[in-house]
Amino acid sequence: MLANKKLIIYAVLAAGLVGGYFFVKISAYNDGVADTILGYEKAAVAEKTRVLDANQLALAKAQKRITLLNQLLQSRHETISALEKEASQDPNADRAAIGVDSVRRLNRIN
């Protein structure tokens, strides 16, 4: 009878130790998973922020370039308008060949 009680006590202690071991192991695993998820979430937020910043910078550069190109286009249109006005006032405009003044106007387009 005493041996049976000792056996039961040892069995309960062994089961408690094994249960405690698995509890600690599972708890540590869950803590590791939580830490990993948190790390990935922080990395995802940092990456999204980096991408948004890069996009904003690219958009700002593109907007500056668009503004510059629009200014160049406006300047080109003004030049062409002035050249067309000069061409319409050219006394040799109805000639079959291109005159010196016409060649100079054409060269100013570039």
Secondary-structure map:
Elements: H1 2-89, H2 100-107
How does this structure look, described?
The protein has helices at residues 2-89, 100-107. The protein contains two helices and no strands. The mean pLDDT is 85. By secondary structure, it is mainly alpha-helical. The radius of gyration is 42 Å and the shape is rod-shaped. Helix content is 87%, strand content 0%. The protein has one domain.
Low-pLDDT windows of residues: none
Distance between the termini: 113 Å
- Overall form: rod-shaped
The largest sheet is:
none
Number of domains: 1
Query: What's the number of extended β-strand segments?
Result: 0
SSE string: HH
Radius of gyration: 42 Å
Average pLDDT, rounded to a whole number, is 85
Please work out how many helical segments DSSP would assign: 2
State the helical fraction: over 70%
Structural class: mainly alpha
Query: Approximately what portion of the residues adopt beta-strand conformation?
Result: under 5%
Supply the key terms:
0% strand, single chain, 110 residues, mainly alpha, 2 helices
In short:
The chain has 110 residues and is an all-alpha fold. 87% of the residues lie in helices and 0% in strands.
